[in-house]
Amino acid sequence: MMPTRAFPTLIRRELWEHRGLLWAPVVVAVLLVALTLVFGGLPRGSVQIQFDGGANDFITELSGERQRMYFGIVVAGLMVPQLMVAMVVTFFYLLDSLYSERKDRSILFWKSLPVSDAATVGSKAAVSLVVVPLIVYGLSLLVSLVVFAVLAVKYSGTMFAPLLEWHTLDWLAMQGVLLLNILIAALWYSPIAAALLMISAAARRTPVLWAVVPPLALILVERSVFGTEHVLRLLGYRFSGFFDAMGMGFSGGQSSTDPSRWRIETLHDQINVAPLLLNIDLWLGVVVALVLLAIAVRLRRWRDDT
Which residues fall within 8 angstroms of residue 143, CB to CB, at 6 or more apart? Predict the structure, then answer.
C-alpha cells in the first residue's frame, strides 16, 4: 500500500508523461478564442431562424427569461468542442497507459517503488474520468468569459447586442450545472474507461485493435447468426446515453426535425442531466467499472511481459 499523499504524485506523473491530455483541450480553447477575435461575425440584417415551431425574427423575440436561457445554452455549448477533443485524446491515453509501460520496460522502475498496482491503475482512471474533464471545465469557464467579452465589445450598440447580454447569476448557475454534468459523465462512462484500461493491461500489441475488433466481430456475428442487434444497442446506449439525456438524440428519442426539440426552453432544460443519477443503468455501470478495474490491477500485477 502507498501513502495517501503519493496519489497526487501519480496524477502529476500521468499528466507529465501524457501531455496531450492537457494541451489538446488548451489548444482547442485557444482556437475558440482566436476564431472569435478573427472572425466573430454575426449575420447582417434580420435573423430568421426555426425556433419554437416557426420561423421568427429570433433577435426581436429574444428578451427577458428567454434571453437568459439562450445565454446559458451558449455558455454550455462552448464546452462541447473542448470536451469532444478531450474524449478522443483520453480514449487513446487509456489504451496506451498500461501497455506502453510494459513495452518500454518502465514498469520495472515503477514496480520498484512502494506504489501498489491498485494505486497506479486508480490514478490512470482518475486522470481520465476526473482530472481531464475538470481541466476542460476550467478552460470552458475562461473561454466563456473571454468570448462573451470580445463579442460584447464588437457588437455593442448594434442590433445583435441582445444576443450578448451578460448574466452573472445565470453564468454561475450554469457553471454549477456543468460541473455536476461532468461528475455524472464520469460515472456514466466509467465502465468504458475501465474496459480500455483492462485492454491496455492485457494486450501484447496493438491495443487499439483489441478495443475495436472484438466488439465489431460480436456485432457482426450476432446480426448474421441471430438477426438481432443487442450488442450494438448496448454499446450505443452506453456511448450515447449521457448525450441522449441532454436531448441530443444520438440513439433515438426526438427527431432532429421535431420543432419542439429546438425550443429554447427545451434546450435549456435538457442541459442539466441530474435525472440521470436516478437511472439504474448508471450505477450498474459503476459496478461493472469496479470489476474491470480490479481485473486490470490483477493483469498489471502478473502480466508485465518481462
Answer: 29, 32, 33, 78, 82
C-beta separation of 170 from 267 below 8 A? no
What is the residue range of 184's domain?
58-302
User: Per-residue pLDDT averaged across 39-54, rounded?
Assistant: 49
**What's the pLDDT at 204?**
86
DSSP 158: S
Comparing C-alpha atoms, which of 83, 283, 122 is closest to residue 191?
283
Q: Spell out the residues 6+ positions from residue 56 whose beta carbon is closer than 8 angstroms to its own.
A: 48, 49
Query: How many Å apart are CA 192 and CA 198, to the nearest integer?
Result: 10
Q: Is residue 38 part of a domain?
A: no
DSSP code, position 275:
G
What is the value of pTM for the model shown?
0.82
Burial of 42 (0-12, 13-18, 19+ CB in 10 A): middle
Give the number of domains in the chain.
Answer: 1
Task: Give the Cα separation of 237 and 250 in Å (integer).
Answer: 9
Q: pLDDT tens for residues 256-268?
A: 445 445 577 777 7
